[in-house]
Amino acid sequence: MRRRCSVVLAAALASTIAASAAMAQQGTLDLALFGQHPRKAVQEYLLVYGAGLGVADTADVGLVGDIDTTGSEREIFVRQQFRGIPVQPSGLQLHVEKATGEVTWARANWRAISPSISLVPSISADSAVAAVWQDVSCPRDEAEVSSGRLLLEFLAGSSEPHLTWEVYYLRRSSYGSPIEGRLYSVDAHTGAILQYGFTVQDGSSAVAGEDGDNSAAGLGVYPNPFNSTMAIRYRLDGPGTVAITVHNIAGQAVRHLARLDGAVGTYEVIWDGRDDRGHPVASGIYVVWLVTPSRAEAKRVTLLR
Protein backbone atom coordinates (compact mmCIF):
# COMPACT_ATOMS: atom_id res chain seq x y z
CA MET A 1 0.00 0.00 0.00
CA ARG A 2 1.32 3.43 -0.91
CA ARG A 3 2.32 5.69 1.93
CA ARG A 4 2.34 9.43 1.68
CA CYS A 5 5.24 10.38 3.88
CA SER A 6 8.69 11.92 3.75
CA VAL A 7 11.33 10.12 1.75
CA VAL A 8 13.27 9.24 4.88
CA LEU A 9 10.79 7.94 7.43
CA ALA A 10 11.40 9.39 10.88
CA ALA A 11 10.06 6.45 12.85
CA ALA A 12 12.27 3.93 11.07
CA LEU A 13 15.39 6.02 11.43
CA ALA A 14 14.72 6.89 15.07
CA SER A 15 14.56 3.21 16.02
CA THR A 16 17.74 2.51 14.07
CA ILE A 17 19.58 5.43 15.68
CA ALA A 18 18.55 4.20 19.11
CA ALA A 19 20.20 0.86 18.36
CA SER A 20 23.20 2.31 16.53
CA ALA A 21 26.77 1.95 17.71
CA ALA A 22 28.38 4.90 19.49
CA MET A 23 31.77 5.50 21.06
CA ALA A 24 33.88 8.29 22.54
CA GLN A 25 37.61 9.15 22.47
CA GLN A 26 38.54 6.49 19.92
CA GLY A 27 41.57 6.90 17.71
CA THR A 28 42.81 9.62 15.37
CA LEU A 29 41.79 10.72 11.89
CA ASP A 30 44.54 11.79 9.49
CA LEU A 31 43.52 15.43 8.91
CA ALA A 32 46.22 16.06 6.31
CA LEU A 33 44.92 13.16 4.23
CA PHE A 34 41.33 14.25 4.90
CA GLY A 35 42.08 17.64 3.38
CA GLN A 36 43.17 16.01 0.11
CA HIS A 37 41.14 12.78 0.01
CA PRO A 38 38.26 12.81 2.55
CA ARG A 39 36.87 9.40 1.61
CA LYS A 40 40.27 7.69 1.79
CA ALA A 41 40.99 9.25 5.19
CA VAL A 42 37.68 7.99 6.58
CA GLN A 43 38.29 4.54 5.09
CA GLU A 44 41.71 4.31 6.74
CA TYR A 45 40.20 5.32 10.07
CA LEU A 46 37.47 2.70 9.75
CA LEU A 47 39.96 -0.03 8.88
CA VAL A 48 41.09 0.23 12.50
CA TYR A 49 37.97 1.36 14.35
CA GLY A 50 35.09 0.45 12.07
CA ALA A 51 34.22 -2.82 13.82
CA GLY A 52 33.20 -0.91 16.95
CA LEU A 53 30.79 1.13 14.84
CA GLY A 54 29.33 -1.76 12.89
CA VAL A 55 31.19 -0.89 9.66
CA ALA A 56 32.44 -4.17 8.23
CA ASP A 57 33.57 -3.04 4.76
CA THR A 58 35.23 0.33 4.13
CA ALA A 59 34.20 0.11 0.46
CA ASP A 60 30.74 1.04 1.79
CA VAL A 61 31.95 4.58 2.57
CA GLY A 62 30.08 6.92 0.22
CA LEU A 63 29.76 10.70 0.29
CA VAL A 64 31.81 12.52 2.95
CA GLY A 65 31.07 16.05 4.14
CA ASP A 66 32.24 18.13 7.08
CA ILE A 67 31.38 21.22 9.11
CA ASP A 68 34.31 23.38 10.22
CA THR A 69 32.76 24.78 13.43
CA THR A 70 33.95 27.83 15.34
CA GLY A 71 34.97 25.62 18.27
CA SER A 72 37.87 23.22 18.66
CA GLU A 73 36.19 20.38 16.77
CA ARG A 74 34.94 19.72 13.27
CA GLU A 75 32.00 17.47 12.49
CA ILE A 76 32.30 14.88 9.74
CA PHE A 77 29.32 13.17 8.13
CA VAL A 78 29.59 9.99 6.06
CA ARG A 79 26.89 8.37 3.90
CA GLN A 80 26.79 4.62 3.30
CA GLN A 81 26.80 2.96 -0.10
CA PHE A 82 26.62 -0.71 -1.07
CA ARG A 83 28.44 -1.75 -4.24
CA GLY A 84 28.21 1.84 -5.39
CA ILE A 85 24.49 2.30 -4.63
CA PRO A 86 23.58 4.83 -1.88
CA VAL A 87 21.85 3.38 1.18
CA GLN A 88 19.29 5.34 3.16
CA PRO A 89 18.65 6.03 5.90
CA SER A 90 22.17 5.30 7.07
CA GLY A 91 25.42 7.05 7.90
CA LEU A 92 28.24 7.87 10.28
CA GLN A 93 29.02 11.01 12.29
CA LEU A 94 32.42 11.88 13.81
CA HIS A 95 33.55 14.73 16.08
CA VAL A 96 37.26 15.39 15.49
CA GLU A 97 39.69 17.71 17.27
CA LYS A 98 40.99 20.26 14.74
CA ALA A 99 44.47 20.42 16.24
CA THR A 100 45.20 16.71 16.70
CA GLY A 101 42.69 14.74 14.63
CA GLU A 102 41.55 12.87 17.75
CA VAL A 103 38.07 11.44 17.37
CA THR A 104 36.25 12.49 20.53
CA TRP A 105 32.84 11.05 19.64
CA ALA A 106 31.33 8.88 16.94
CA ARG A 107 27.95 7.40 16.09
CA ALA A 108 26.95 5.10 13.27
CA ASN A 109 23.62 4.13 11.76
CA TRP A 110 25.24 1.62 9.40
CA ARG A 111 23.15 -1.03 7.70
CA ALA A 112 23.99 -4.71 7.28
CA ILE A 113 23.00 -5.78 3.75
CA SER A 114 22.92 -9.33 2.43
CA PRO A 115 25.52 -9.99 -0.29
CA SER A 116 22.85 -11.92 -2.21
CA ILE A 117 20.56 -8.92 -2.69
CA SER A 118 19.70 -8.17 -6.31
CA LEU A 119 21.06 -4.83 -7.49
CA VAL A 120 19.89 -5.23 -11.10
CA PRO A 121 16.61 -3.34 -11.65
CA SER A 122 13.79 -5.18 -13.40
CA ILE A 123 12.35 -1.96 -14.80
CA SER A 124 14.15 0.90 -16.49
CA ALA A 125 14.36 4.46 -15.26
CA ASP A 126 12.01 5.44 -18.11
CA SER A 127 9.42 2.97 -16.80
CA ALA A 128 9.70 4.50 -13.33
CA VAL A 129 9.10 7.93 -14.87
CA ALA A 130 6.01 6.58 -16.66
CA ALA A 131 4.66 5.26 -13.35
CA VAL A 132 4.93 8.73 -11.82
CA TRP A 133 3.23 10.37 -14.80
CA GLN A 134 0.30 8.04 -14.16
CA ASP A 135 0.18 9.21 -10.53
CA VAL A 136 0.13 12.97 -11.10
CA SER A 137 -2.89 14.91 -12.37
CA CYS A 138 -1.05 17.58 -14.29
CA PRO A 139 -0.82 18.35 -18.02
CA ARG A 140 2.56 17.36 -19.39
CA ASP A 141 3.23 20.82 -20.75
CA GLU A 142 3.05 22.22 -17.17
CA ALA A 143 5.41 19.78 -15.44
CA GLU A 144 8.65 17.86 -15.70
CA VAL A 145 9.26 14.29 -14.53
CA SER A 146 12.81 12.92 -14.52
CA SER A 147 14.63 9.96 -13.04
CA GLY A 148 17.43 10.11 -10.51
CA ARG A 149 19.60 7.55 -8.77
CA LEU A 150 19.11 3.94 -7.88
CA LEU A 151 18.90 3.62 -4.09
CA LEU A 152 18.71 0.92 -1.46
CA GLU A 153 15.98 2.18 0.88
CA PHE A 154 14.91 0.78 4.24
CA LEU A 155 11.21 1.56 4.57
CA ALA A 156 9.21 1.55 7.79
CA GLY A 157 8.52 -1.93 9.09
CA SER A 158 11.00 -3.62 6.76
CA SER A 159 14.28 -5.21 7.81
CA GLU A 160 15.41 -5.59 4.19
CA PRO A 161 16.08 -2.75 1.75
CA HIS A 162 14.10 -2.04 -1.40
CA LEU A 163 15.92 -1.27 -4.63
CA THR A 164 14.23 1.94 -5.80
CA TRP A 165 14.44 4.57 -8.50
CA GLU A 166 14.35 8.20 -7.43
CA VAL A 167 11.92 10.09 -9.65
CA TYR A 168 11.43 13.86 -9.51
CA TYR A 169 8.21 15.66 -10.35
CA LEU A 170 8.32 19.44 -10.75
CA ARG A 171 5.39 21.67 -11.70
CA ARG A 172 6.03 25.27 -12.73
CA SER A 173 3.90 28.37 -12.90
CA SER A 174 3.22 30.20 -16.16
CA TYR A 175 6.25 32.37 -15.29
CA GLY A 176 8.53 29.34 -14.98
CA SER A 177 8.85 29.38 -11.18
CA PRO A 178 8.59 25.99 -9.39
CA ILE A 179 5.31 25.77 -7.45
CA GLU A 180 5.15 22.09 -6.53
CA GLY A 181 7.63 19.26 -6.44
CA ARG A 182 7.72 15.68 -5.26
CA LEU A 183 10.51 13.17 -4.80
CA TYR A 184 9.18 9.65 -5.49
CA SER A 185 10.55 6.25 -4.54
CA VAL A 186 9.56 3.73 -7.23
CA ASP A 187 10.24 0.03 -6.69
CA ALA A 188 12.89 -0.90 -9.26
CA HIS A 189 11.54 -4.45 -9.58
CA THR A 190 7.75 -3.95 -9.67
CA GLY A 191 7.27 -0.31 -10.69
CA ALA A 192 5.07 0.35 -7.63
CA ILE A 193 5.22 3.80 -6.04
CA LEU A 194 6.35 3.14 -2.48
CA GLN A 195 6.33 6.68 -1.10
CA TYR A 196 6.96 10.31 -1.91
CA GLY A 197 7.83 13.54 -0.18
CA PHE A 198 7.57 17.18 -1.20
CA THR A 199 10.64 18.92 -2.60
CA VAL A 200 9.30 22.37 -3.56
CA GLN A 201 6.46 23.64 -1.43
CA ASP A 202 5.15 26.84 0.16
CA GLY A 203 7.85 29.30 -0.71
CA SER A 204 10.81 26.99 -1.22
CA SER A 205 12.29 27.99 -4.57
CA ALA A 206 15.59 28.13 -6.36
CA VAL A 207 16.72 31.34 -8.08
CA ALA A 208 19.91 31.80 -10.09
CA GLY A 209 22.04 34.81 -9.19
CA GLU A 210 24.57 36.72 -11.26
CA ASP A 211 27.37 34.56 -12.57
CA GLY A 212 29.95 37.04 -11.31
CA ASP A 213 28.69 36.95 -7.71
CA ASN A 214 31.55 35.46 -5.67
CA SER A 215 29.92 36.00 -2.29
CA ALA A 216 28.76 32.39 -2.16
CA ALA A 217 31.86 30.35 -2.89
CA GLY A 218 30.78 26.95 -1.58
CA LEU A 219 27.72 26.77 0.66
CA GLY A 220 26.37 29.69 2.68
CA VAL A 221 23.33 30.06 4.96
CA TYR A 222 21.78 33.23 6.40
CA PRO A 223 20.53 34.36 8.79
CA ASN A 224 21.90 31.83 11.25
CA PRO A 225 20.30 31.46 13.79
CA PHE A 226 16.91 32.09 12.13
CA ASN A 227 13.29 32.01 13.30
CA SER A 228 11.10 31.81 10.20
CA THR A 229 12.90 31.52 6.86
CA MET A 230 16.51 30.98 5.90
CA ALA A 231 18.36 31.45 2.60
CA ILE A 232 20.74 28.72 1.41
CA ARG A 233 23.15 30.03 -1.21
CA TYR A 234 25.65 28.02 -3.20
CA ARG A 235 27.81 28.31 -6.28
CA LEU A 236 27.81 25.74 -9.07
CA ASP A 237 31.19 25.66 -10.81
CA GLY A 238 30.03 23.42 -13.63
CA PRO A 239 26.69 22.30 -15.08
CA GLY A 240 25.02 19.44 -13.27
CA THR A 241 22.41 18.25 -10.81
CA VAL A 242 22.25 19.67 -7.27
CA ALA A 243 20.42 18.13 -4.30
CA ILE A 244 19.74 20.09 -1.09
CA THR A 245 18.38 18.42 2.05
CA VAL A 246 17.94 19.41 5.68
CA HIS A 247 18.67 16.87 8.43
CA ASN A 248 18.04 17.05 12.15
CA ILE A 249 20.83 16.39 14.64
CA ALA A 250 19.89 12.69 14.79
CA GLY A 251 20.59 12.35 11.07
CA GLN A 252 16.97 12.20 9.91
CA ALA A 253 16.21 13.97 6.63
CA VAL A 254 13.36 16.33 7.53
CA ARG A 255 13.14 18.33 4.29
CA HIS A 256 14.18 17.65 0.70
CA LEU A 257 14.40 21.21 -0.54
CA ALA A 258 15.43 20.88 -4.15
CA ARG A 259 16.82 18.66 -6.84
CA LEU A 260 17.64 20.96 -9.73
CA ASP A 261 19.72 20.95 -12.90
CA GLY A 262 21.72 24.17 -13.19
CA ALA A 263 24.36 25.92 -15.22
CA VAL A 264 27.41 27.69 -13.79
CA GLY A 265 26.34 30.42 -11.39
CA THR A 266 25.21 31.33 -7.90
CA TYR A 267 21.90 29.97 -6.66
CA GLU A 268 19.66 30.53 -3.67
CA VAL A 269 17.07 28.26 -2.05
CA ILE A 270 14.68 29.37 0.71
CA TRP A 271 13.79 27.03 3.58
CA ASP A 272 10.60 27.98 5.41
CA GLY A 273 11.31 25.89 8.52
CA ARG A 274 8.86 23.14 7.54
CA ASP A 275 9.30 19.42 7.00
CA ASP A 276 8.39 17.36 3.92
CA ARG A 277 4.75 17.17 5.06
CA GLY A 278 4.46 20.94 5.45
CA HIS A 279 4.57 20.92 9.26
CA PRO A 280 6.75 23.46 11.14
CA VAL A 281 9.80 21.76 12.66
CA ALA A 282 10.82 22.33 16.27
CA SER A 283 13.50 24.72 17.46
CA GLY A 284 16.93 23.14 17.42
CA ILE A 285 20.06 22.41 15.42
CA TYR A 286 19.80 21.18 11.82
CA VAL A 287 22.35 20.27 9.13
CA VAL A 288 21.94 21.51 5.56
CA TRP A 289 23.48 19.16 2.96
CA LEU A 290 24.49 20.26 -0.53
CA VAL A 291 25.45 17.51 -2.99
CA THR A 292 26.76 18.44 -6.46
CA PRO A 293 28.48 16.26 -9.08
CA SER A 294 31.86 17.35 -7.70
CA ARG A 295 31.43 17.77 -3.94
CA ALA A 296 29.32 17.35 -0.82
CA GLU A 297 29.14 20.12 1.79
CA ALA A 298 27.25 20.55 5.05
CA LYS A 299 26.40 23.53 7.27
CA ARG A 300 24.95 23.49 10.76
CA VAL A 301 22.07 25.93 11.35
CA THR A 302 19.98 26.84 14.40
CA LEU A 303 16.23 27.43 14.33
CA LEU A 304 14.83 29.54 17.17
CA ARG A 305 11.04 29.72 17.28
Q: Can you describe what's shown?
A:
Strands 1, 2, 3, 4, 5, 6, 7, 8, 9, 10 and 11 form an 11-stranded mixed beta sheet that branches. A 4-stranded antiparallel beta sheet has the order 12-17-14-13, with no helix packed on it. The two termini are 36 Å apart. It has helices spanning 10-18, 31-36, 38-49, 125-135; strands spanning 3-4, 21-24, 61-68, 73-82, 85-88, 91-97, 103-109, 143-153, 162-172, 178-187, 193-200, 206-208, 219-222, 230-236, 240-248, 253-262, 265-271, 284-291, 296-303. Mean pLDDT is 78; it is low at 1-19 and 201-217. By secondary structure, the protein is mostly beta strands. The protein folds into 3 domains: 3-7 and 124-200, Nuclear Transport Factor 2, Chain: A (Roll); 21-109, no CATH class; 206-303, Immunoglobulin-like. Strand 9 and strand 10 (178-187) form a beta hairpin.
Give a topology summary.
Elements: E1 3-4, H1 10-18, E2 21-24, H2 31-36, H3 38-49, E3 61-68, E4 73-82, E5 85-88, E6 91-97, E7 103-109, H4 125-135, E8 143-153, E9 162-172, E10 178-187, E11 193-200, E12 206-208, E13 219-222, E14 230-236, E15 240-248, E16 253-262, E17 265-271, E18 284-291, E19 296-303
Parallel strand pairs: 1-11, 5-8
Antiparallel strand pairs: 2-7, 3-4, 4-5, 4-6, 6-7, 8-9, 9-10, 10-11, 12-17, 13-14, 14-17, 15-16, 15-18, 18-19
